[in-house]
Amino acid sequence: MSRQEGLVRSEPQSLVQSDQRQTVAPPCDVYENGEELLVMADLPGVASNALEINFDKGELTIYARRADVPPQGTLLGAEFRSTDYRRRFAVPAGIDAGKIKAELKSGVLLLHLPKSEALKPRQISVKAG
């Protein structure tokens, strides 16, 4: 992968807010090593059954919904509202789509996008002759 193609590029994301729900782009970090691309997305308060991840034609889409917080008394201020998270990435060629794995731990989504064997670094042996 060239340096430019090797990085997952994200689209600009906008914040949409209504009286009921807001939609935000979760903050994400992307790492690359010899084996995979790793996407880490911050999704506080999201349950695994409220998470949808799709990979199609080089595009990775993350959609999640944080549930409403049940009332705990008289509401005096609200900053932890129900929220929709949506993020879309263009992913470089060479990802083995059949081996993509996702895990959600403590509000952080870890997406493992393994590189195909052709893209993995390898050592070439040299024969003396």
Mean pLDDT score, rounded? 83
Specify the overall morphology: elongated
> Could you say what the CATH topology is called?
Immunoglobulin-like
The CATH architecture name reads Sandwich
* Class computed from helices, strands and strand pairing: mainly beta
Poorly predicted ranges: 1-7
Number of alpha- plus pi-helical segments: 0
Question: How large is the share of residues in beta strands?
Answer: 35-45%
Integer count of domains: 1
The top level CATH class name: Mainly Beta
Rg over alpha carbons: 19 Å
Number of strands: 10
**Which series of helices and strands comes N to C?**
EEEEEEEEEE
Distance linking N and C termini: 32 Å
Main sheet properties: 6 strands, mixed
- Summarize the amount of helix as a percent range: under 10%
Question: How would you describe this structure to a colleague?
Answer:
The protein is an all-beta fold and 129 residues long. The chain has a single domain, classed as Immunoglobulin-like (Sandwich). Helix content is 0%, strand content 41%. The protein is built from no helices and ten strands. Strands 1, 2, 3, 6, 7 and 8 form a six-stranded mixed β-sheet that branches. Strand 9 and strand 10 form a beta hairpin. The protein is elongated. Residues 1-7 have low confidence and may be disordered.
